[in-house]
Amino acid sequence: MAAVRNVVKGRITGGASTISMQLAGNLFLDRSDRSFRRKMQEILLALQIERRYTKPQIFTMYANQVYLAHGNYGFAAASQFYFGKPVTDLKLQEATLLAGMVNGPKFSPLTNPELALNRRNLVIHRMEEEGKITPTDETTTRKTPLGLHVQYPRNDLAPYFFEEIRKYLESTYGTEAVHERGLRVYTTLNIHMQRIANQSLRDGLHAYERRHGWKGNLPNVLRDNLGKLETYEDDDWRHAIEKGSYVTGLVLTVSDRDAVIKIGPYRGILSPNDFAWTGRKKPADLVKSGDLAQFSIQELRDNTVRLQLEQQPGPQGALLAIDNSTGEIKAMIGGYSFEDSKFNRATQALRQVGSSFKVYVYADALEKGSTPFDTIVDTPFTTISGGQPYSPRNYDEKFEGTITLRRALAGSRNVPAVKLAEKIGINTVVDMAKRFGITTPLPPYLPLALGAADMKLIEHVSAFTVFPNDGIRIDPHMIRRVTSYDGALLEEAHPEVHDVLSPDVARTMTAMLEEVIQFGTGIQARALGRPAAGKTGTTQDYTDAWFVGYTPQITSGVWVGFDDKQISLGKKETGARAALPIWLEFMQGAAAGTPAMDFQNVVTLEQQASEHHLNVDTPDTAPTEDEPAAPKEKPPAAPPPTKTGAATSAGVAPRH
To answer: Tell me, what's the pLDDT at 28?
Structure first.
């Protein structure tokens, strides 16, 4: 009858679809297209499906494809979403609720609970009429409530990346198209790199916590009425528990020698070696029965786990990795936990970049004719900036006398950077940074040379790709192409290419930044074991720590800091100490199994040095003064981070 109505009215008004036709539409066609042409395509495809597959096979495919509202395709996904259980564990009232939603999202129990309940009861009644259940079953089941236990899926892989994708798609195509029309989105994400990035950032932030001592103040299941020891289940335990994970554990018992910890189906023994970093001797000095604490998984075996005590990080972090040759974003992390904070610190946060800004100063100087072997004097210096006296000082409060620009950048000397910016003109430095793609406001005052301006990680990392790319920058992007469900191309990435520097200047900058790693402030990155270049950055009062670096293939950057810009990471928490180890762990994992490559057409400064005979007070390759010491095994407990005063232009600006 529906087909007859369609013919009489001259348009598709509803119905007239078998399960085979609906499956054909779901798999191959845009079902929002209600034309006769699309309906005929659906019929022809359905005939092909019925020739190739049995009815049970067709129904199984349909059950796995049918849309059941709120982004859920198929009964298995819907069962997990609405009830938090596998489809095989559904009760009668739950299965019939899902069956009632087949006719469309309007029967969603979240948006139309009364309509959904009526529809469910209709399904129950039809089952009784067909003899599938007894009248008693029908009566009993109809009286039950909806009984939802909605479980919004947790995207542990790249939640910040996919949230950026979602926001873009909804603004471009509309919410309905994104959630109901089955757009196919091909992204630039590298799953391997993203997993390594996730682990690296977490490892780095937890290492920071271990350096700063035990804070305590743990939640307690018994004291806080969160449940019983025997039955408590933590949300962390619903997800994969594997080696390297940081997971909440429940303290079951505590003795003078050890403590028994429950993590999902696993049991672990917490012994003194597992909390040596706290400086405490006994487990009872740290935890008590019922406490919920953080643990890192060292090893899993059968039902036992070897673990280490950790604590929830106070500071946040962000990491971004870009493929140099394409501008594709390969990994993105916007914070420690997307569940706790949706704010994306890789794309949204505006933070001072410290001495990592100096690359724009030196690039401008090279373009104006300076060379790495030009000399500059690192001595006390006062000038006028913004109508006020300005006296930059070096991180170590020392001065190196006459040094080369090569040495000044590798050692991140502040006074030479400010002198250089004054010589070439701070306004031209601002213009240079804008050419690199920096869009945030840059105040044209000399402290800018030391990074006294807010910038975004994504722009800063993208800017660094100019150096390995022989002077060009390709706009960073996350989407390769978008198609409709049936494959029609809706958009394809054609990122803009910007000519920023001449190849010679870009190659010279790479040669200079290689030395930051070879013997400068980024010397820890030598452990990468392959050609790399980069720059550390630390802001005044240690509120922000940065490292941005690159190989010929990949450029990545790391930021670490508290969301409250007035809270310091703590003395000595430089870019080299807080951010660089995260960058190093990520780049080691990302590069594993790939051949080491040299920077093309880059002549190292060491090779060029023999051509220059200079009188300097500090040799180019002398060690820098702040190669961070190895952390102590048992650091003393530290007080919570303290508030710091607002940065002043004449204060000491740590230069990492």
So the answer is: 56
How confident is the model at residue 25, as a pLDDT?
A: 64
Q: Is 377 exposed, middle or buried (0-12, 13-18, 19+ CB in 10 A)?
A: middle
Q: What pLDDT shows up at residue 163?
A: 94
Of 27, 65, 23, nearest to 487 by C-alpha is 27
Tens digit of each residue's pLDDT (9 = 90 or more) over 362-421? 999 999 999 999 999 999 999 999 999 999 999 889 999 999 999 999 999 999 999 999
Which helix (H) or strand (E) segment holds residue 168: the answer is helix 159-173
Give me the pLDDT at residue 14, please.
Answer: 47
DSSP state of 257: S
> HSE-up of 105 (CA within 13 Å, CB side)?
11
Q: Cα 593–599–605 angle (5° rounding)?
A: 130
pLDDT of residue 640: 40
Between CA 342 and CA 166 the distance in angstroms is 13
Residues 6+ apart with CB under 8 A from 71: 179
Residues 355 and 450: beta-carbon distance below 8 Å: yes
pLDDT on residue 29: 54
Half-sphere exposure for 532 (CA within 13 Å, toward CB)? 30
Rounded CA gap, 81 and 79, in Å? 5
- What does the pLDDT read at residue 154? 61
The whole-number pLDDT of residue 269 equals 97
Q: Extract the residue ranges of the chain whose pLDDT is less than 50.
A: 1-15, 31, 627-655
Print the SS3 string covering 565-593.
Answer: CCECCCCCCCHHHHHHHHHHHHHHHHHCC
* Cα gap 359→178, rounded to integer Å: 41
Query: Beta-strand (E) ranges in 169-220?
Result: 184-187
Q: b/e string for 14-50 if b means 16 or more Cβ within 10 A?
A: eebbebbbbbbbbeebebebeeeebbebbeebbeebb
Look at residue 375 in the predicted model and tell me its pLDDT: 97
Joined together, the tokens standing for residue 655 give 């230069």
User: How far is Cα 327 from Cα 318, in angstroms, rounded to an integer?
Assistant: 18
Contacts of 210 (CB under 8 A, 6+ apart): 277, 310, 631, 635
Under 8 Å between Cβ of 74 and 64: yes
216-310 topology per CATH: OB fold (Dihydrolipoamide Acetyltransferase, E2P) (2.40.50)
Domain ranges in the chain? 216-310
Angle at 97 between CA 93 and CA 103, to 5 degrees: 155
Q: Which residues of 350-374 are buried (b: 16+ CB within 10 A; e: fewer)?
A: ebbbbbbbbbbbbbbbbbeebebbb
Q: For residue 72, what are its two tokens?
A: 């859920």
Q: Enumerate residues 6+ apart whose C-beta is below 8 A from 594.
A: 553
In this structure, the dihedral spanned by the alpha carbons of residues 134, 139, 143 and 146, taken in order and rounded to 10 degrees, is 30
Question: Quick one: which of 477, 463, 455 has its CA closest to 435?
Answer: 463
Handedness of CA 271, 277, 282, 285 (dihedral sign): negative
Which residue's structure tokens are 């001072």?
Answer: 352
Q: In which element (H, E) is residue 425 found?
A: none
Tell me 290's DSSP state.
Answer: T
